[in-house]
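Subject: sequence -> structure tokens, single chain

Hey, anyone have a minute? Need the predicted structure for the following. Not urgent.
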Amino acid sequence: MINLEALIKAAATRGTEPEYSTILEFCTATRTMPEQFCNDYAVWVAKGFYEERLTYEFCDGAMNYLWGFMTTPPVFGEDKNIPEPAYEIYRAFDEGEYHHQGDPSAIDPVEKYTKPLVEELFRGGRLS
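Reply:
Had a minute. Here:
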């Protein structure tokens, strides 16, 4: 059976993204609720970034895939109850995707926004 790390690596690589049904089958096989899967996935990605084992590009791709999964019914329904901390981790990587208004062009949004947000999650004790 495929494991969480393999699913994330496939999800982060264009052209190898698993079908959402594969994620749901994984959840069934591991007796993991989809909300917990999303949180485990997001924390694994954030930890790899925080420990500098994973690149921003890899993590951003992985989190964009997870966002699609989390916002596609019937996973979490029409009301989009996105689990935490998965949503907060997604937002941290999203902040690194673009230059923010008022920032000079030389500012790296990953350095200014994503890294501090991810570091705060670990240093603040909310993730381990």
